[in-house]
Write a structure and sequence with these properties.
By secondary structure, the protein is of the alpha/beta class. It contains 15 helices and ten strands. Bound molecules: S-adenosylmethionine.
Length: about 375
Amino acid sequence: MAGLVHVDFNLTNACNLACTHCHSASGKALPEELTTDEIIDVVHQLHAAGTLSIAFAGGEPFMRRDLLTILGEACRLDGWRVSVITNGLFFSDGVVARLADECPNLGINVSVDGATPDTFSELRTQPNATPAARAALFRRVTGGVSKAAAAGLRVSVNTTMTRATMHDLRATYRLAVEELGADALVAIKFFPAGFGRRHLERYDFPASVWSREFQALTRDKLAGALPRMQLSLPSAWEFYLPLIEGGFDLAEAERAWNNRSPLREPAYGRSRSIGDVAGVHELCVSGDGSVYPSILMVGEKDMLCGSLRHQSLEQLRQSAAPLRRLRELRLAEVGGGCSSCDLAGLCGGGSRSRALAEHGSVTASDDACPLTTPALTEAVR
Ligand SMILES: C[S@@+](CC[C@H](N)C(=O)[O-])C[C@H]1O[C@@H](n2cnc3c(N)ncnc32)[C@H](O)[C@@H]1O
């Protein structure tokens, strides 16, 4: 069975914010979330399975009172990267001191979706918040980042790239890296799920707009203007297609962004024709122990793989039908004409999560890609 490169562990669905783009549609805790002991057992199982990187998120992970115990336990285990993704509202002096003491190797990603209270509150708003409350929230979050960075913690800033807020990305980079002391800015492309699906017109990028934006970013990156900006994109065509359209040298852009399709790795390319690693090298565990192939598939009934409350990780990975389906999936089964696309060897079917979100099937086409031919979808299914 393939090795787990990355696992997202959503410790709770509870959240003290109500972000309009939230792909997890977080707010209330799930009815029966895992206990501390159950979580620590799952963490040990994931580590024993050889997972290379684990990210604790939610919901807001700091809503759990036992978070520092869980992080401390994960950080004590060797040979993997441990990170926590947070809204940054819980960095009291006591919490920062305990993190520095008990989790020195922890990566902390604080979400700052804009360089001003206005842009920030486009996504990270609370219902009925006044302008003064929004400004105070922005100050608290940015203050949390600088406090954690000043204490020597390894802090990065996450920021979601949406069509409505993209104009502020470079200013957010400067704020995060030059003013707040973050190690990096991780720019995450908007994914149409959860609450975010209510705002597709405002947040989602048509492919042509994305292509233009990403080419401009890549020009800045190659010119050395954004050395600490990293990328998180749902699929490989969102990286390669704008680069090809813009006449960029792909190898040079891959090096600059430190980003490369798994299909470009000879061993991977020999064993799989699908570029999306969901369910194969990636999993997501929900707060109640339910497992999904990817954080972007959480809540999709057909993709529920089982529960770590009732099964061991090994049993679940061996028996879960959605995981087997994704492991065995071949590009020829994917709709939209992907297998005859010129980008097949780079992309391999686009985002299986987006195909699932749009069409309810992991063999459907990723219609966000302008190269797909939707008419071919039905024929293949
Ligand atoms: C769902 S949040 C959970 C952790 C924490 N509560 C926080 O605010 O960072 C994890 C990360 O996903 C990002 N995110 C949320 N919805 C998204 C979407 N629709 N597309 C892309 N990224 C999204 C958030 O901005 C955040 O950086």
